[in-house]
Amino acid sequence: MVGFCVNGYFIIDHILRLLTADYKLEKGKLSFLLYPLTFMALADLLCILPSLFLLNNSLRLFKFIRYSKNIQILTNVLKKQKDSLIIVGLLALGYIFISALIIFNVEPSTFPNFFDALYWATISLTTVGYGYIYAVSTTGKIITMISSFLGIAIVALPAGIITAGYMKEIKEL
C-alpha cells in the first residue's frame, strides 16, 4: 500500500513538472513538447512505468476477489451476521471498560492512569499479556485471571458466529 502511495506521489510530481515545463525551459508553448524529451523527464517516466504495470496487476487481483465465490460467501455472512457481530463488539468494549475501571480502583499504584488500565484490560481480554504491565496484588491477580478466562469466551464469539454463518451459506448453495 505504501508503495502505491509513493508511486502516486511520483506520478503527480511528473505531471506537475510537465505542466510547469515553461518555467524550467522558458521556451513558451514549445516547452511542453520539449520537456518530455529531456533526460530527467525520460528517467522519471522509466521509473514510473513499472508501477503502472503493478497497479494494473493489483486491479486484476481485486477483480479476482470480486468474482471469488468464497469471498462472496464471507461477505454475505458478514452482512447477515452484522447485528450479532456488533453486539459482540459492544460486549467486548463494555467488558474492557468495566475491567479497566475495576483494576484502576483496585491497584492505583500499578495503574497510575486510566489509559494504562484500559491497555491492561485489552491485553488481558485478548489473552496476549505482554508482561510489562500487570497486577501485583492478590486481588488484582484474581481479576486478571477472571479477565483472561472471560476474554477467551468473548474473543471466540465472533469466530463462532462467522463459522456458523459460513456453514449456513454453504448449505444454502
Automatic annotation (TrEMBL):
It comes from Streptococcus cristatus AS 1.3089. Residues 5-167 form the Ion transport domain. This is Potassium channel family protein. SUPFAM superfamilies: Voltage-gated potassium channels. One of its GO terms (biological process) is monoatomic ion transmembrane transport. The lineage of its organism: Bacteria, Bacillati, Bacillota, Bacilli, Lactobacillales. The keyword Cell inner membrane does not apply. The chain crosses the membrane at residues 32-55, 85-105, 117-135, 142-167. It holds the Pfam family Ion_trans. It is found in: Membrane.
